[in-house]
Each structure stands twice: as C-alpha cells, then as structure tokens.
Fold this protein.
Amino acid sequence: MVDAIIFDIGNVLLRFDFTRTIKRIAPFCSTAPAAILELLEPWKLDLESGRVSGSDFLNEVTRVLGYSGSRAELQSAWQEIFSANLPMHDLVASLSSLKVPLYLLSNTNNLHADYFLSEYPVFAHFTDAVYSHEAGLMKPDVEIYHHALEKFKLAAPTTLFIDDLLPNIEAARTVNLTTHHYHHDRHASLLEELRKLHVL
C-alpha cells in the first residue's frame, strides 16, 4: 500500500534529447559538434547542482564552445529538448482524479524547470517538488531523498518513487522507499504495479 507517489521528470514524465541542442548551436560554435556534449557536461552538473546560475551557465557555454550566435537562441536551444511522455501524462491525470498525492524529485536546473513548468500542463497535478539545483543535492545522493521526504512530510515505506535510472532507484531503496524502475517501453508494467499496490 502506498499513500503518495514521487516522480522523476526526465525520461519519465518528459523524454529529452540533447542532440536537439547540438544541431541548433553547432553552426555557431568553433567546437566540433561531436565534442559539444562532453565539453558541456561539467557545466551541466554545476548548473543542476546549483553551483552556477542559469545566466553564468550560458556565459560559460558561450566561452567554452566559442559560440557566436544570439543568447536567446542559445537559451531556447538548451531548453527545447523535451517531448511529452503522453501515457504517463494520462496516468498522472488519472491519479490526480483519484486524489493520490503526487510529488516531483528531479535532477534539473532553473533553465529547464522554467521552461517545462510553463509548457506542460501535467505539472499542475503535483503538490510539491524538490529540484536538485534548489536543494544543492543530486540523485543518487541519499541526502536528497531524506530532504524530499522531510519536505513533503511523507513516510518512506508508504511512498512510491518512480525513476528511469537504476542508481537512483538503488539509492531510494536504501532509505526504504518503495520503488519502480521505469522505462517508457514498459509503461504497462508500472500500471500493473500500481494495481498490485491498490493505487489504481
């Protein structure tokens, strides 16, 4: 039995593809397209952990990649990487109609959060959220799970946590959360588990 559900966002609620960013900014970069993601990775981690602001991130990306395009294009190219996982959006709406408390726990950043919260109505169904850039912690650090449970005032054993990455699932299990390792190709297995837990 579970009393509440905590959802990851990336590849759970929203699918994402950073190659969209590369295709848009590569013509304006002095860096080879194949090297862009690798060069961005440390700055991405700093952004998601809250160590740098969105503005500083865009400044550093411009410098590191030798980017000569507009700042507005760079920001939108970074933000517009998402697509809706529609079966999950339908499930969230159903759970919300059943009055199941829903929460978010995501490694993300303010540039992405500002975008997806404004673009996707599914997020209106959630009661509260913990984002890595605000918490200064990132999954799979167990402290972020403790932080989320305390903020949401939830008991771990009666809370279901849904994530697409196994290390995040394994860390969640160490704090006694009930878990489901999600993949969009196996969406039916989540529905089956929710029925077994008497949520649906």
Q: What stands out?
A: Residues 18-79 form one domain. The first strand starts at residue 4 and ends at 7. The mean pLDDT is 97. The CA atoms of residues 20 and 106 lie 21 Å apart.
